[in-house]
Specification:
This protein is α+β, with helices and mostly antiparallel strands. 15% of the residues lie in helices and 32% in strands. It is globular and about 40 Å long. The termini are far apart.
Amino acid sequence: SSLPAAGSAGVLPYHLLRSRRAVRRAGWGAFLGRSAAKDDFLGEYVGELLSQAEADRRGKAYDRGNNSYLFGVNSAWVLDARERGNNVRFANHRSKPNCQTRVLMVDGDHRVGLFAVKDIAEGEELFYNYRYDLDNAPDWAICS
């Protein structure tokens, strides 16, 4: 599998916008700059590639500030989008999301794509399921 290149045949770049969410304590969100159809590729989750051990170390510090952009690619590797990410990192958690992530192998590298699971209107906030382990999930993730 591969991620579509922005501007390739049939694929237009989605301008993902970062904005404060209407719910004050919720922080930032990612919003679609134009409408998307079910199964459309919306963007790639990018960041610094870390070992699981380094991600565990950073995650403890991030959790104290309730501000983490770690994405588990597989059992060995994690993407940290905190400093080197794009606006895809602002997509928030919801147990019934409008997007999903897919880890794909592209030219020998693991890549993470964000795809629409239904039609999404322009300006709508993007959500995917973070797939928390219920024993370690923050309270806000269990309720959403």
